[in-house]
Structures are given as C-alpha cells and as structure tokens.
Amino acid sequence: MKKTTLPPIVAAILLTGCGGSGNGGDEEQEDPGFVSSVQITRGNAIEVVAAASGAGEVVLNLADPLALIGVVEQRDKVNRKIDIGKFSERLIRDSLNRIDGQTAWQSNAIGVIVNNTIDCDTTGTIVFTANDINSNNRLDSGETAGFTYNDCRTPLEEGGFIVSHGTVNLTDVVIEGDPSIEGSNWRLAFTANYETYSADVHDDEDPVFIIEFDGDLGLDTGSADTGVSRFRTTSISDFTAGVTSVPDDISRVRGLQNYSEQVILNNSTGEISREFDGILSDTSLGGDGRIKIETPGILRGLFDDEHYTEGKNRFTGANGSSVTFTIIDETLIRLEVDEDGDGISEIVEDHTWDELLES
C-alpha cells in the first residue's frame, strides 16, 4: 500500500491492499447481519482487495483511507483519483474561506438564519445559509450551515476544473485553532449531508467524469499534542457515490455502510498508522457487490516509505469466503484465500509489492 500526503491532513492511499488471517491466529467471526452474493475465490481475490482496501479513502476504488470515491481512466490514460474524505474537507474549507473573504451579512438577532451569496472563481455562485447562534457573522462550533452550489466552477490544483451542483448541509460542527500556524493544535469536525450533490470534473475544457454523492459523511481531522500528531477520522452510516465517465458513459456505484476509519501520523517520529472497518458495496464486483472489511492488525509504517511494513486486513464475502493480506515487510505481502468459508486458507501465496501492483 502506498502512502501520500493530503495537506493539511494525512491520508494513506492503498493501491492494492493488505491484510491477513487464514491458517491460524485470527478466528473468523460470523456476523449474522451480513449477507453477500460475492463469492471470494482465487480468481477474484485481487479485485476484491483492490476495491475494499481503497474503500474509505475511496468510497472507493483501488485507492484509500477515508473513502476514495472513484478512479476513472482519462483520455491521456492517467488515473484520476477522487477521495471523498479529502474532497469533502477541501470543498467545505474552500467554501468557508470564500465566505470569510466577503462582506459579512447583516444580522442582529441571536440564532437568526442568515444568507450570503458568493461568486465562484470562474462562473456560478455559492449560496451560504447559516444559523448564526452568537450573531458574529461567521460559522462557529455548535452552529449549522448549508452550501448550495449553482454551477460553481473552480480550478483544480492538478489541472482542469470542477463544476459543483446541489446542496451540502453541515451539522455537529467543531472549529478549533488555526491550521495555518505550523505546529499548532487545531481541529475541524463536521457531519456533511449531501443532498443531490454532483460535480462535473473537466480536463481542460472537456468533461472527464461526473460524480454524485448521497448520504452522510462524518469527518474529524486536525493536529494534537503540540503538533506531534496529525489525525483524521471518517465515519459513515450510509453513503453512496456514483462515478460516470464521459464520453464513454461507463458507470460505477460504490457505497459504504457502518464504516469507520482512522489515520494517525506522528510528526515527530514519522510513524503512520491506519485502520478501517465496515461494509462495502461495489457494482464492479458483480451481484450485490457487498464485502465486509476488517482490520485485525493495524497498518503501520514510516510515512516516507512507499508501503506499510506491518498490519493485516480481512475482506469477507458470501458464505464466509474471504481473502486476507498480511504485510510481511515493505517488500513482501502474504495473500490467503479461504474459498469455502471453513476458516482454513486453501491458497497461501507470498508476493512482492511490485508483483501485486502489476497483477
């Protein structure tokens, strides 16, 4: 699994997976509430790992923590990755910055609902509605807000631009400290409810793909312990993301239920850890596409290294069938497949990371 920085937060992007179980050690825990029609076999194990290990940073694809929403091949054959966790935070933070830079709305009554319309970078507007409890003309902890994007066009750092439509409502807001101050303690937390929100992603002037979000996403990110550690937690009760490539009109829908993920980076030692659990549904896996995700062994490594060096994940499908990855070190991983769900791995194979990434 590869790790990359998502300033000012931390994210570790899984390009293929990790995990473990199988021949002893961890016993399979039967979950009577989990039902799947995806039978995991040697033939689809890599595909399952690629989808499930990217889940969170994915809501997913082959990608990573928090919930990657999709990977779509562009015309230039470059994979574009959209991380819903990162995307949500950037969307909200950018919107707050826009509001902060505009003339404040007029408000005298405590708890009044206030509105402000902001012009986007190129075209379109953002309509900001807030329950300004303390009447200070800004969003503070404990308040609620909503952003309605009306064909809001914004450039992307990596090139191209994105056009946003629809509404995102914020509750459970916590805003503490200032992330622009190096080494300071700060925290940004909220629950975002996406109501028919969609975004068109363009490469130059041509549309590349369309993403649609539906559901609630909880984010809690920041820096604690006098800047020694950065953290990021994602929680999802029920969230779906649809990705449709343009002009191929190829669609993929991914969903997460009862999902949680935590990534922690110790800035002092450079150590990073990640764990994630939940239920993935992915149309690319066939059937109902449901996979149960577990982290029996927390993923750990050094942030500057290409891969984690220890940890394991288990991904379970129909009839108790499962595939697990155990990270042996930065070079080797172990793949164990239990095709009949009896708790014993019929297939045990060691691979290098390069072999796995190239498969």
Structural notes for this entry:
The protein is built from 3 helices and 18 strands. With 359 residues, it is mainly β. It has one domain (4-358). It has a 14-stranded antiparallel beta sheet with strand order 5-6-7-8-9-10-11-12-13-14-15-16-17-18. A hairpin with a 7-residue loop joins strand 14 (290-302) and strand 15. The radius of gyration is 21 Å and the shape is globular. It starts with a strand and ends with a helix. Mean pLDDT is 75; it is low at 1-29, 56-82 and 103-110.
Topology:
Elements (H helix, E strand, L loop, with lengths): L3 E3 L2 E3 L33 H9 L14 E6 L5 E5 H17 L11 E8 L5 E8 L12 E11 L5 E16 L9 E18 L2 E19 L4 E17 L5 E16 L4 E12 L7 E13 L7 E7 L5 E6 L4 E7 L8 E6 H6 L1
Antiparallel strand pairs: 1-2, 3-4, 5-6, 6-7, 7-8, 8-9, 9-10, 10-11, 11-12, 12-13, 13-14, 14-15, 15-16, 16-17, 17-18
State the main characteristics:
14-stranded antiparallel beta sheet; 50% strand; 18 strands; disordered N terminus; two-stranded antiparallel sheet; mainly beta; 359 residues
**What can be said about the biggest beta sheet?**
14 strands, antiparallel
Tally of DSSP helical segments? 3
- How many domain regions? 1
Strand order in the largest sheet:
5-6-7-8-9-10-11-12-13-14-15-16-17-18
- Determine the mean pLDDT: 75
Strand share of the residues? over 45%
Number of strands: 18
Helix content: under 10%
Query: Stretches where pLDDT falls below 50 for ≥5 residues?
Result: 1-29, 56-82, 103-110
Shape: globular
Measured on Cα atoms, how large is the radius of gyration? 21 Å
Order of helices and strands: EEHEEHEEEEEEEEEEEEEEH
N-to-C span? 14 Å
Structural class: mainly beta
